[in-house]
Design a protein that fits this description.
The chain is of the alpha+beta class. It has a single domain, classed as Cyclophilin (Beta Barrel). The protein contains four helices and ten strands; from the N terminus they run αββαβββββαβββα. It has helices at residues 3-28, 52-63, 159-166, 194-200; strands spanning 32-37, 40-46, 72-76, 80-83, 114-117, 130-133, 151-157, 170-173, 176-180, 186-191. An eight-stranded antiparallel β-sheet has the order 3-4-6-5-7-2-1-10. A two-stranded antiparallel sheet has the order 8-9. A hairpin with a 2-residue loop joins strand 1 (32-37) and strand 2. The radius of gyration is 21 Å and the shape is globular.
Amino acid sequence: MSRKTNFKRLVPITTTLTFLLFSLPTMAEKPLVLLTTDKGEITLQLFPELAPKSVFGFLNLVEDFHYDGLIFHRVIEDFMIQSGGYTFDMTRREAAAPDIVSEASNGLQNKRGTVAFARTSDPNSARAQFFINHQNNPSLDPNSKKAGYTVFGEVISGMPVVDEIAKVPTGSFGDYQDVPKEPIRILSAKLLNPIVWEKLRPRKLSFERPIPVP
């Protein structure tokens, strides 16, 4: 085998390794959350630089185990899957968290695989419920006539799981519509890289006098 042949084979490998080496640090600098569901795992990458208040609120709830055991209570194929508010029997779980100010004008769009906060008619009423866009949903983006919904992350692994959840049979449950007939739980929501988040987490200023080190 000639040296030229060896070189030709090595070039694609070297290029791939270079791409990975430059891509991984970028990904590692953003908080990653693993949702383990009854249908499989979904990994989310969050955008604190574009939606700091939303990411802070979401991760506080992850750390408080708020999402563990909740279901995807609203599922509409070719639209979105929503979670963050109800247990398997549609008992509401209130979040011990303040409302989050809208950051919908951050430039992020409600495209397939993005993660956004649900809310009431008040743009600043998001608290815990979130949804994953199953398809591109430009109608959920802000414009001059409406506030839109804040995108604060995206799915980087597990879209087949999202697709599977989106296709389950749904029906009504009391006053609620589009509820999966078989509950699909978030078994756990876990921050995968807490060290990264500690570096990015907003800190309160302290005016206490420092204690001298002996």
